[in-house]
Design a protein that fits this description.
This protein is of the alpha+beta class. It has ten helices and 13 strands. The chain has two domains: about 180 residues, Ribosomal Protein S5, domain 2, CATH 3.30.230.10; about 130 residues, Alpha-Beta Plaits, CATH 3.30.70. The strands form two sheets. Strands 1, 2, 3, 4, 5, 6, 11, 12 and 13 form a nine-stranded mixed beta sheet that branches. A four-stranded antiparallel beta sheet has the order 8-9-7-10, with helices on one face. Strand 11 and strand 12 form a beta hairpin. The protein starts with a strand and ends in a 7-residue tail after the last strand. Bound molecules: L-homoserine.
Length: about 325
């Protein structure tokens, strides 16, 4: 095989209460990467489309290039690789754009080399891509993009990642108001210490959310999607946050929050119609305020990244094991 293509989806990190420890994959949008064998031993970014020329072609500064370089070095491969990136989601949106590029590139190159590593073994390299993009090797976008579903990062040292069961149909609306927030800046806003009362509330909610997903308890799920740590500070970066929440809930969604570090807003619902209605009313609200806003609706995507086999034209999804425990101690 000389070239292969892979897709990796957008993701909602944090899901309100799980700062840096929860993330879920959406069906769309997502990025595609074509990887091709090349002469020599370098990783090169041949082209990037869909980014308005904003992403670096220098592989050392591009999240996909960084992830593939550390992967090839780790497996001792001297294979030269050329990457073409097709960005199909906005940058700086809180939808896991950098994660999707790194994951799609890793999945494509791994396949090109005959799949020497499993999906979960690719995770630390995708995290290095995140470190290059925002200074922090958080896994709550790359893990669900790679593995699909709703993912818990129980520990970073050592890395211990669990793909949770989702025992009920669960749908997500996503609205992306056209304001740019850099993850690096949104992280810099957060305090080093959290008051004990907020910490107690937050770990109650994270545990509640896991229990709800395992048992299919919608009521518990929706009341657990609350953030006492990051949202009170970060919502100030997103104009009309409170009105957007009110509109989404009135349209039938039952939980609402900031997707990752924002500005995208996610909402959860029991059915697709409510998720779609919630996303549409939020977009309409921003349109009225003359802020552009894209929106999507999706079921939780249990498959994650896919190899798009260029020879057969068939898509093949992630491995999908329920537990992935990595002992290689990725650094945060
Ligand atoms: N957990 C990260 C953050 C996700 O909130 O900073 C960034 O998409």
């Amino acid at each position: 095989m000389n070239e292969t293509r892979a897709f990796a989806p957008a993701t909602v990190a944090n899901v309100s209460c799980g700062f840096d420890v929860f993330g879920m994959a959406l069906e769309a949008p997502g990025d595609e990467v074509l990887a091709r064998r090349a002469e020599g031993s370098l990783v090169r970014i041949r082209s990037v489309s869909g980014d308005d020329g904003r992403l670096p072609l220098d592989a050392k500064r591009n999240t996909a290039g960084v992830a593939v370089r550390v992967f090839l070095d780790a497996i001792g491969s001297r294979q030269g690789v050329e990457l073409e990136l097709y960005k199909r989601m906005p940058l700086g949106s809180g939808m896991g754009s950098s994660a999707a590029s790194a994951v799609a590139a890793l999945v494509a190159v791994n396949r090109l080399l005959g799949d020497p590593l499993s999906r979960s073994e690719l995770l630390p390299f995708a995290m290095e891509g995140e470190r290059s993009a925002c200074g922090s090797a958080h896994a709550d976008n790359v893990a669900p993009a790679l593995l699909g579903g709703f993912v818990l990062i129980r520990s970073y040292r050592p890395l211990d990642v669990i793909k949770l069961p989702v025992a009920m149909p669960l749908f997500c609306g996503l609205a992306h108001p056209h304001i740019e927030i850099r993850t690096r800046d949104a992280r810099a806003l957060l305090p080093d210490c959290v008051p004990m009362a907020d910490a107690v509330g937050q770990w109650g909610n994270t545990a509640g959310l896991v229990a709800a997903l395992c048992t299919g308890d919608y009521g518990l799920l929706f009341r657990s999607v609350q953030d006492l740590v990051a949202e009170p500070l970060r919502k100030n970066l997103i104009p009309h946050f409170a009105e957007a929440r009110e509109a989404a809930l009135a349209a039938g969604c039952e939980a609402f929050g900031i997707s990752g570090s924002g500005p995208s807003l996610f909402m959860l619902a029991r059915d697709r119609a409510a998720a779609a209605a919630g996303a549409a009313v939020v977009a309409a609200l921003y349109a009225k305020l003359e802020v552009g806003c894209d929106y999507w609706d999706s079921r939780v995507n249990m498959e994650g990244a896919q190899v798009l086999d260029t020879e057969s034209g068939q898509a093949e999804s992630a491995s999908g094991g329920l537990n992935c425990v990595l002992e290689n101690g990725a650094r945060l």
